[in-house]
């Protein structure tokens, strides 16, 4: 019997995941806040703004601007909206779930967004838990890992992580998505998976900037490796498992986001490296660049936690203090010498 799944957010990733779940035989409703977008998608069976003209929606995929219709009898609700829209969309979902209470089993909440909420510095699962009471839902699962919507759309082989403190829920979600080109592994380290997903976008802006400036492979490898060290430090400080950061949602996602032209964060950094202004870059992108907002949150978080994040701080200076990129790189390289692994540093220990 097919599972009814509501996918909230009709950007590139939401559309591709909704299509995949439909291919897997589920009854999927893709919700967009824009009636105009829904009308166009129904007429053309495409989502050209996000996925180009080549990608065609599955005939059985339902597209709607009616949130109540999408959620009615849904046993899984997948949030795929930008990080800073998660709370507002969840607040729209809450009264509908309250009205549907008792009409069926409580839904599993899943999210596939990657960021940290501005102001609160909360991870996305924390935002969802803050808005949606535990008596309305079964629990929360995070799906994350090295993935670009454009590649999944062409059935490129992709592996991700399904993470939840409730392992049986993660296994249920795992089975919903699995097919011959899309594979999920389970994990119980929600903190590590979400921190890796959010902070790799910051490092990807730096990787793009290096490319735009003309630096070579040595420089990019240095940035990614030391960027992963920063991500691991703050993650472990928050309670994550260190091994998570050498997994799919850690180094895996970092690699794909720092090396692909499909990455909005990489493209934004590349444009900055070529001398474009941030405001113009964001305007021309036409889609949310999560790493820009996350950089500000991560910079403040590092200060609060007392965690050393020099690369993140450097990217913050470029984005928010108009610091020249080459000058920032020089400052990074001229810092005092340090050991590669500081095992005496409490922030590197898992307690």
UniProtKB/TrEMBL annotation:
The keyword Cytoplasm applies. Pathway: Membrane lipid metabolism; glycerophospholipid metabolism. GO terms for molecular function: glycerol-3-phosphate dehydrogenase (NAD+) activity; glycerol-3-phosphate dehydrogenase (NADP+) activity; NAD binding. Pfam families: NAD_Gly3P_dh_C, NAD_Gly3P_dh_N. It is an enzyme of class 1 (oxidoreductase). Substrate binds at residues 114, 264-265. Its EC number is 1.1.1.94. Sn-glycerol 3-phosphate binds at residues 114, 145, 147, 200, 253, 263-265. Residues 189-329 form the Glycerol-3-phosphate dehydrogenase NAD-dependent C-terminal domain. NADPH binds at residues 12-13, 33, 50, 114, 149, 264, 288, 290. GO terms for biological process: carbohydrate metabolic process; glycerol-3-phosphate biosynthetic process; glycerol-3-phosphate catabolic process; glycerophospholipid metabolic process; phospholipid biosynthetic process. It catalyses: sn-glycerol 3-phosphate + NADP(+) = dihydroxyacetone phosphate + NADPH + H(+); sn-glycerol 3-phosphate + NAD(+) = dihydroxyacetone phosphate + NADH + H(+). It is found in: Cytoplasm. SUPFAM superfamilies: 6-phosphogluconate dehydrogenase C-terminal domain-like, NAD(P)-binding Rossmann-fold domains. Residues 4-167 form the Glycerol-3-phosphate dehydrogenase NAD-dependent N-terminal domain. One of its GO terms (cellular component) is cytosol. InterPro entries: 6-PGluconate_DH-like_C_sf, 6PGD_dom2, G3P_DH_NAD-dep, G3P_DH_NAD-dep_C, G3P_DH_NAD-dep_N, NAD(P)-bd_dom_sf. The active site is at 200 (proton acceptor). NAD(+) binds at residues 9-14, 149, 264. Belongs to the NAD-dependent glycerol-3-phosphate dehydrogenase family. Catalyzes the reduction of the glycolytic intermediate dihydroxyacetone phosphate (DHAP) to sn-glycerol 3-phosphate (G3P), the key precursor for phospholipid synthesis. NCBIfam families: PRK00094.1-2, PRK00094.1-3, PRK00094.1-4. This is Glycerol-3-phosphate dehydrogenase [NAD(P)+]. It comes from Lacticaseibacillus zeae DSM 20178 = KCTC 3804.
